[in-house]
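Thread title: Can someone regenerate the structure for this chain?

I was given the following input by a collaborator and told the matching C-alpha cells would be attached. They weren't. Posting the sequence so someone can regenerate them.
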Amino acid sequence: MSIHPSAIVAPGVQIPDSCTIGPYSTIGPEVVLGEDCTLVSHVVLDGRTRIGAGNRIYPFTSIGVAPQDLKYQGEPTETEIGDHNTIRECVTISRGTAKGGGITRVGSDNLLMAYVHIGHDSQVGSHCILANAATLAGHVTIEDYASVGAFSPVHQFCTVGQYAFIGGGTIVTQDVLPFSLTSSKRENKAFGINKVGLVRRGFSPERLTVLQKAFRLLLTSRMNTSQAVEKIRQLEGEDVRIVADFIEHSQRGIVR
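Best answer:
Regenerated them for you:
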C-alpha cells in the first residue's frame, strides 16, 4: 500500500494494499478500509468506522468523529460508509449515538460536495447528491437518488424521499415527498415532480404521467391530504403507491 510518511496510522487499522493514504492523514485504531480507497490528504478517520471499496476522500474531511450532541459520553458507536463514494473537501460525518440507534450510515455511489455535514444517526441511501454545505441534523434520512441543494439545512428526524430534489438554500423542516421538486423560491413548497431528474434516471413518459396525476391531486386539488391519498391509491403503478405510503408514514408532516 501507499502510505505517506507524514500520515499517522494507529496500530490495529485494517487497510488493504490497494489503498492510498495521503499526506497528514490520521486514521484511528478501529477503522476498517475497503479495497482501492484513496485519502487525498489531511483526512481524519476516527472511531468504529467501516468504509467500503473504491471511495475517494478529499482533504480536511473528518469521518467517524464524535457527534455534536451534548448527551454523548463516549459510547462505542459507529459509522458505516458504502462503496464508490466521492467525498469532497471539509465534509464531516459524525458517528452515531447510543439513543439514536448507534450508527450513522452512508450508502454507495454518492457525491458529497464540499462542506457537507452529516449529523449523528443519519441514514443516507445510495446514488444521492448532497451539494456544497448541505447540512443534515441528527437522525435525518435521505432515501436513494435524492438530491439536497447547496446551503440547505435539514431538520432533525426529517426524511427526504427517493428521487426528490431540494433546491439550493431551502430550509427543510418537514418530510420531502419522493419524486418531488421542492424549493425556497416557492416559499419552501413542493411544486410538482422532479421531471428533469426522473427523465435522467430513465423514467418512462407513462410513469411520469401517473406521477403528475398524483401530485396534482395532492398539491392543486381542493382535497385534504387524506382524501388526496385515497384518490392516489386508485391510480396504477408502484411509484404512486410509494408516494401514498410515504405520506401515511410521515412523522413530521410533508412539505406541500
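The radius of gyration is 20 Å.
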